[in-house]
Design goal:
This protein has 377 residues and is α+β, with helices and mostly antiparallel strands. Helices cover 28% and strands 25% of the residues.
Length: 377
């Protein structure tokens, strides 16, 4: 097989704090082109750096099999979160210490993408069509990343039959968990306007804080559901309160809050937004919902069995099918084809001194190769 460790080092060495562009995509293209892939790169977004509309680079690569053959896709992201301070070695200077490879993105998820690229080198070209759906905007607003790639794939007739996302899903050791679904997410900004005044003359003012407190109390008391066979109960969390009143003797003019709801497939972003808007209005306030993803579920079946068999063959572990955790770009890809997430151990993702076991890179490469061959057979 192609050297997965070399691939991982090359990707880590290209700084790519979200939104990623440039060098890291050069490295990815240099890996895939010699393996017979036709690589297309494009940028979407025209805003200023630091804004949600900032330019994002995306890559779609395809190696076509015989006419009529199945199409299997790997999906992932090359952008990473900021490394922060205090690393034992440079965050973008890949270094092996002991049996670990250190560097930002080693786990989330440049390591897994390196495994994908190395795995396809072991899959015959006549096995079927293989593609890579790679974005530079998963850790950020995700406005111009995978959604833009989906638009491009539909426009060019490149939709796959199955898709595997390389998020770090394993717990404690490689192979313990795959994600067959994820909950949806909606964040809602709440605001109550009042009338500013002196605290000694409350009849001349209108304090918005008690109204906001009553609104939050009602929202906090909601029982959204009891969970389902595959999903834990939906939860609503109050994530911010803001009045900004620096004077002790002034009734403020406005009070604000923010809530976040992670919800299962008994709800939609729209239905929950509607519920919260009504409660906010009841208490004299307003609500601005922003839905960042809907829930998805790929029920256990042939695809999950292919993954489980490959993991078992290489590790002896039976992966648990799960829907826990946060959102990922699978929430968008679910609209294209069945999608499941499986990848490295997630213990150090987003942490200082992020690291992956070198042996896990080799094992995951073999797992991915088995999955592709079985999926295309």
């Amino acid at each position: 097989m192609t050297d997965v460790l070399d691939f991982a080092k090359r990707l880590i060495a290209a700084p790519s704090v979200t939104p990623a562009t440039g060098a890291v995509f050069d490295a990815m293209e240099d890996m895939l082109a010699p393996l017979g892939f036709t690589v297309t790169r494009f940028t979407r977004g025209d805003g200023e750096a630091g804004s949600p509309e900032a330019p994002v680079e995306n890559l779609f690569a395809v190696r076509r099999g015989p006419a009529g053959s199945k199409h299997f896709a790997f999906a992932g992201h090359l952008d990473v979160v900021p490394p922060g301070e205090g690393w034992a070695s440079g965050a973008f200077e890949p270094e092996i210490r002991g049996d670990l490879l250190y560097g930002r993105g080693a786990v989330d998820m440049k390591g897994a993408i390196a495994c994908m690229a190395a795995a396809v080198a072991d899959v015959p070209e006549d096995a079927g069509t293989i593609s890579f759906i790679i974005t530079g905007d998963e850790e950020g607003p995700a406005l111009h990343g995978t959604r833009a790639l989906i638009d491009w794939m539909r426009e060019h007739g490149e939709e796959p039959d199955l898709c595997l996302v390389g998020e770090p899903t394993s717990v404690n050791r490689l192979g313990t968990m795959m994600k067959i679904g994820r909950r949806g997410s909606v964040n809602i900004w709440l605001e109550v306007e009042g009338t500013q005044g002196h605290v000694a003359y409350p009849h001349l003012a209108d304090n918005p804080i008690p109204k906001l407190v009553a609104m939050l109390a009602e929202l906090d008391a909601l029982v959204l559901d009891e969970g389902t066979d595959w999903f834990q109960p939906s939860n609503l969390e109050i994530t911010d309160l803001e009045v900004g009143n620096t004077a002790h003797n002034v009734i403020p003019a406005v009070a604000k809050a923010r809530i976040s709801i992670r919800f299962n497939d008994t709800h939609s972003g729209a239905s929950l937004s509607e519920k919260v808007v009504a409660i906010a209005k009841k208490h004299g306030g307003t609500a601005l919902p922003i839905v960042s993803g809907e829930p998805f579920l790929t029920p256990p079946g042939e695809f999950s069995a292919i993954i489980a068999d490959a993991v078992k063959a290489e590790t002896g572990v039976d992966p648990e099918p799960s829907t826990t955790g946060g959102t990922s770009d699978a929430r968008f890809l679910r609209a294209v084809c069945p999608v499941i997430e499986f990848g490295l151990v997630n213990a150090t993702m987003h942490k200082r001194d992020e690291a992956v076991a070198v042996e896990d890179l080799h094992v995951l490469t073999r797992i991915y190769a088995r999955i592709v061959k079985a999926a295309l057979a």
